[in-house]
Amino acid sequence: MKFSPFPEIQSKNLLLRQIVTSDCESILYFRSDKIINKFIERPENRKTKTIDDAIKFIHQIDENLETNKSIAWGITLKNDAKLIGTICLWNFSQNNKTAEVGYDLNPDFQKRGFMSESLKSVLEYGFTTLNLVSIEAYTHEKNQNSRTLLEKNNFTLLSDKKDEDNLNNLVYEIKNPILNK
Length: 181
Fold this sequence. Notes:
Radius of gyration: 16 Å
Shape: globular
Strand order of the largest sheet: 1-2-3-4-5-6-8-7
Number of helices: 4
Strand content: 25-35%
């Protein structure tokens, strides 16, 4: 698996692009806003509280990209470079057949189809370019918006799988439709 050069993704309304240091204010907002993080439980050492923390987080994203551990896109409207959210593929299995998707979105842009459009684009990339067999998503049982997003995008609840790090999370999965015809 190789993420170089960085794979920008364009969809009807959006550009999914590399997250850069100048996005630090947006990253700080996404990782510290109470509404966005209502259902996210992070250990103290992974919390983003300052601009310096956000810059360190962006450097970690870059390092993970270089070592092929994960890939994160900044979500922007096509006509505006400012981030409205992020989406990533990470937590790849050892054989690189499964990954986890994670995402966040500025509340001002929620309920407008942007995250669904982003998710569809990243699923297509994961299944066609990375040849993933399946993609999982972990979401808090009370996060109805996220659950609805996943279900509308053909994810299935894995009722027998638990998130050992957070028992309040539900685990969803979508299988590669190209491989599962």
